[in-house]
Write a structure and sequence with these properties.
Elements lengths: L1 H5 L3 H13 L2 H13 L16 H12 L1 H10 L5 H10 L4 H22 L9 H16 L2 H6 L25 H13 L4 H25 L5 H5 L13 H10 L1 H4 L4 H13 L7 H6 L11 H10 L11 H11 L6 H13 L12 H11 L10 H36 L1
Amino acid sequence: MFVDGTNFDVEELVIDLYYWFDKSTKRKNELQSFCIFCDISYKSLVKHITTRWLSLEIAVDRALKQLPGLISYFMSNDCAQAQFKRLKTALENPMAEVYLLFYQATLPAFTHANKFLQREEPMFHLLKAHLLHLYKRLLGKFVKPTEISANLNNLSSIDYTDICNQVEDRELAIGFTTRQTVMKLFNEGSINKQSLSKFYKSVRQFFTSAMDYLIMWCPLGDEILDHAVWIDFERKLDVTFNSVEYFVGCFPSILGDINRDNLNEQFLQYQFMSINDLPENLKEACHYTDDDHPCRIDALWSYLRTVNTPGTKIPQFDLLFRVAETILTIPHSNASEERIFSYISKCKTPSRSSLHLDGSLSSIMVLKTHISDPLEWKPTKEKAKRSYMAVQQNKEAELKLLCICLLRVHLFFLHVH
């Protein structure tokens, strides 16, 4: 692991930096003064949460932009606190900048994959392609291109741990700025040959460990991913009817009553369709891009469900839609569930511990998960009317309960006297 080889824990560093300056205005002002002295812009440090990978790249980038000011601050001050000592020890190492630059150059590959897994749209049909893209991207950082090209159809057969299959130190993909910085330190005599070799060895261990993790936890060899691509309109010609039939066999309780011959006919009609047969709004909706543009393959199949056989009112893809609908319900990650847990912990706090799951908490969760901006949301007149009537009925029930209580108290005193 990179941490074991370099004794540099980037997560510990960015977390310690944030909490060291977070609650102290004096420390922030001192850091701002050092940033001005170093002729760099001061910006607040970013909080990194270990369970949220996306924040690490941003936190590293922010720390790098203010690194001269941070180094000046910790080298010019002294404190007995353990947190300060950890930060000073880490930043006085001349390789600290190299380590941060390496993470800055490497983390985008993981961030890109993480963003895909956290998308809320149905993406199960694209999961295999994205995992393979990450697989190739990581291999390309330290494995010889000739070895990758020779095994493109079977990447899992590459022994990436074998040093003979890896590139030389000067060809490792550590980032242009990282390589320039580390060679500058070496030529200036700030680091020796042993430190340089130790860094390259740690880089190899980092990539090797990342590949081990990817192979262990990502279902690259699961055949269900290969068969799911047919619901993608742009890849419908890459597969055969066997891929459709595969899901019928996987879910007999849901799809067991489907006539295979009719299903095959509908699949053929689906393959014959052209992109020009779709409405304009769906041509972009079913096309995936790496930016935040939504990919709504479910919108495409909602449309296909309404298409009738020419000259009749008989649905043309009703059986095929049932199979596609089953695939669309398969989650491509557990990000949605984790997001729900995060919402619950933010809603049900120690100061609001009386919120019940079958009451207010459920209502709040519905608003947070189904309405993008609850503050700007305006209910319809019908919903507002029903809400008003519910409140009035609740008030009447509370009033009746209060009257009953008062009556019981009155009867009790009459009985006593």
